[in-house]
Amino acid sequence: MPPAVPYLDQPPTPLCFFRDWVCPNRPCIIRNALQHWPALQKWSFPYLRATVGSTEVSVAVTPDGYADVVRGDRFVMPAERHLPLSHVLDVLEGQAQHPGVLYVQKQCSNLATELSQLLSDLEPHVPWASEALGKIPDAVNFWLGEAAAVTSLHKDHYENLYCVVSGEKHFLLHPPSDRPFIPYEMYTPASYQLTEEGTFKVVDEEAMEKVPWIPLDPLAPDLARYPSYSQAQALRCTVQAGELLYLPALWFHHVQQSHGCIAVNFWYDMEYDLKYSYFQLLDSLTKAAGLN
Asked: What SUPFAM superfamilies does its record include (predicted)?
């Protein structure tokens, strides 16, 4: 574990990226990798309003900014609304109101499916990473939200290239080897529903099976309840506009952002590779030892 996430001043070659970062499963922040994207100069709120303002996008809406989070004995997912992007921008600028906290975070290649007019402002993939990983991205996602919008601690089985276009993102990271110290429990899935009065209620998703999720908030961990977490070693980093974070598959991450931050990320699904097998082994040993 390095004491901090390393910086690279320029994009690596595909060989160096694979050898030095992908194979050892180490994160890094890469500068000067996005400078040729028109999006870095174009993607202001006025530009988005003029270009895609009338386009309806999927928006996660929560009462407190936390989507996909444990609340009591429930794993609660956000309410989803389809709103014109111009309305989201108006809320972010204080020119309109909407109940709860808004976050454009649909993670199914929403840049291509909902905001395709913006695709010409950036590359469809990151060439040196795609060559190193042996494939093109499985999803390209667009992110825009309020400062109150927070991503709870979780992991993904994707190689993740997270590119900040404007503003900044704040990441708290744990390597997969911290799995024995990170608690998981099973929860009944539920979703927020927004009522006509503008209040939120939690409704169970009866057709879904229980969901394993992390109940711990790494910003204010309950060490009396989860004492093992004190042995975990978090890395914290801030990704600024124009920088790219390589977040390796299966790293735990908790994410905050500046107000109105705009980002794009590329997901490469490596399916059942060696990293996945390693994590499954570590997870099985953790459960067998009764750690959580």
From this structure: Clavaminate synthase-like (SSF51197)
Report the SS3 class of residue 5. Answer: coil
Q: What share of the chain is helix, strand, coil (3-state, %, to 5)?
A: 25, 35, 40
Report whether 241 contacts 111 (CB < 8 A): no
Q: Find all residues with CB under 8 Å of 194, minimum gap 6, and list them.
A: 61, 79, 81, 99, 100, 200
How many angstroms separate the CA atoms of 100 and 50, rounded?
A: 25
Distance CA 36, CA 21 (A): 23
Q: Name beta bridge partners: 212.
A: 186
The per-residue pLDDT for range 107-120, each reduced to its tens digit, is: 889 999 999 999 99
**Dihedral (C-alpha) 242, 146, 97, 196: value to the nearest 10 degrees?**
130
- Phi/psi for 120 (5° steps) reads -70, -10
- pLDDT value of position 150: 97
Size (the chain), residues: 292
The band of 244, judged by pLDDT with boundaries at 50, 70 and 90, is: very high
Place of tokens 């908030």: 217
Mean of the per-residue pLDDT values of the chain: 95
| Partner residues linked to 241 by β-bridges | none
- Counting beta carbons within 10 angstroms of the beta carbon of residue 266, is it exposed (0 to 12), middle (13 to 18) or buried (19 or more)? buried
Instruction: Give residue-wise pLDDT tens across range 217-227.
Output: 999 999 999 99
Separation between Cα atoms, residue 157 and residue 139, nearest integer Å: 13
Burial of 271 (0-12, 13-18, 19+ CB in 10 A): exposed
* b/e burial code for range 179-203 (CB count within 10 A of at least 16 → b): bbbbbbeebbbbbbebeeeeebeee
SS3 assignment, position 279: helix
pTM listed for this prediction: 0.93
